[in-house]
Amino acid sequence: MYCNPKSILITGASNGIGKALALHYAAPGITLFISGRDQARLDDVANACRNTGATVSGWIGDVTDEAGIRDWIISCDDQRPLNLVIANAGVALGATDVHGLHKAAVDSININVNGVFNTIHPALEIMSLRRPYPVRHAQVALMSSIMGYAGMARSPAYSSSKATIKHYGQALRGALRGMGIGVSVICPGYVSSAITAKNTSTMPFLISAEKAADIIANGLARDKPRITFPWQVMLIARLVINLPGLLVDKLNKPWGVPKLEDQPGHNAPD
């Protein structure tokens, strides 16, 4: 039912997974609507997709701009009814001291959670009004992360924001099932991108953005509820969420990033 989308919208398409997905879907007869915050990079992606025969329209903007992205999505659907909307844009924010925790958490929720809401809700409103009913050829995908499976000490803000998206997507799938609208949650492990390029810690089972796009598109074509990859980190994640709390406490340490208690000014008094 969702295996062959012709009109596809992707946020955060100027780099990483979003860029790889745009290039994966680009082909004659395909209309792509892509967004990003960097004009030059988005133009490069758009031109590469056009070279394959796709029709491409770009929007420079921020997913936190609720009114702006709503207007853009409505205009995209007016041009060609959207079959697939991928809410991909997001950030990986952390804090190196206690005073940075609040900003990292608020900004993560604003971008990774509210940004997804700002993307999928206008699309769902439009899709739900189509007839005949239940609707056909309508699907949304929410970008979570393998770190959304559990609260991670190395990235409290990021893992919590992605957990919200994971749970919301799962709930939304059930809520919309009778409408005929497909909902999938994407939970990647480490994927080569601008975000991981800044990461100085170990990134086990790192895969290319192109490989990630293949896996995601495959899962979306089969309307999978949750697309988690690679399989090695999926196995680890499933083990972790079923461990007793005492054992989780021993394992859940901020590996690969500065420990908050080790920062100047936060040492315990003698």
TrEMBL record:
Similarity comment text for this entry: Belongs to the short-chain dehydrogenases/reductases (SDR) family.
Pfam family for this entry, one: adh_short
PANTHER family assigned: DEHYDROGENASE/REDUCTASE SDR FAMILY MEMBER 7B, DEHYDROGENASE_REDUCTASE SDR FAMILY MEMBER 7B
Signal sequence, start to end: none
Name of the protein in its database record: SDR family NAD(P)-dependent oxidoreductase
Keywords: Oxidoreductase
